[in-house]
């Protein structure tokens, strides 16, 4: 039997500290799947990768930062790349250049698509979805429609680009450094 979700106000959501932080969609607080090492490694990789462009684009890469979609909806991309805006001290309210979602083993595609459509609805022109389990990458333009990308992930109207193979080669490199448990 399905349970009825407990709805809360936007004000209650904004004043509550969640660990980890959670999305807020039309009164419902939604948990996010995370906490797995491949997810964390890719999140760190993208933050470091985007750092080289911060000065050029007067921007910053932020992990797990709240993005206001509308008055009753807040999403938390795994990584966002945004232009600096002193008028947004706590919550991002203008469209970032890019939102990146890194799949966890329990993520469901329909939920990921909903997130990407939310990003597109506020003017995010590009979103990337990275699947570390199947070594696949997807890109969505301003319509939010996802398509598999096999060569290069790019941010339009910038020099920001990275080969899909490079993303997964770094993940492979990090995994190779991890000691394997002994079977003794």
TrEMBL record:
> Keywords, A to Z?
Endonuclease, Hydrolase, Nuclease
The answer on whether this UniProt entry bears the keyword Hydrolase reads yes
Alphabetized Pfam families for the sequence: Uma2 (PF05685)
Record-annotated Putative restriction endonuclease domain positions: 21-137
Would the keyword Nuclease turn up in this protein's UniProt record?
A: yes
The terms under GO molecular function for this entry are:
endonuclease activity
Top-level taxon of the source organism? Bacteria
- What this protein is called in its record is Endonuclease, Uma2 family (Restriction endonuclease fold)
């Amino acid at each position: 039997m399905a349970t009825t979700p407990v709805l809360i106000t936007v004000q209650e959501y904004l004043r509550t500290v969640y660990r980890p932080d959670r999305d807020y969609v039309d009164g419902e607080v939604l948990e996010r799947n995370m906490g797995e090492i491949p997810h964390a490694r890719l999140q760190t990789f993208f933050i470091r990768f985007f750092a080289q462009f911060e000065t050029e684009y007067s921007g910053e890469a932020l992990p797990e930062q709240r993005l206001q979609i509308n008055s009753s909806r807040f999403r938390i991309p795994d990584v966002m790349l945004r232009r600096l805006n002193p008028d947004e001290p706590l919550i991002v309210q203008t469209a970032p250049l890019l939102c990146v979602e890194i799949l966890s083993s329990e993520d469901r595609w329909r939920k990921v698509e909903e997130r990407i459509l939310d990003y597109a609805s506020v003017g995010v022109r590009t979103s990337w979805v990275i699947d570390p389990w199947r070594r696949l990458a997807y890109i969505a333009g301003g319509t939010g429609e996802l398509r598999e990308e096999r060569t290069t992930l790019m941010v339009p109207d910038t020099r920001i680009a990275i080969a899909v193979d490079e993303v997964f080669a770094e993940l492979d490199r990090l995994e190779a450094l991890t000691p394997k448990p002994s079977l003794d």
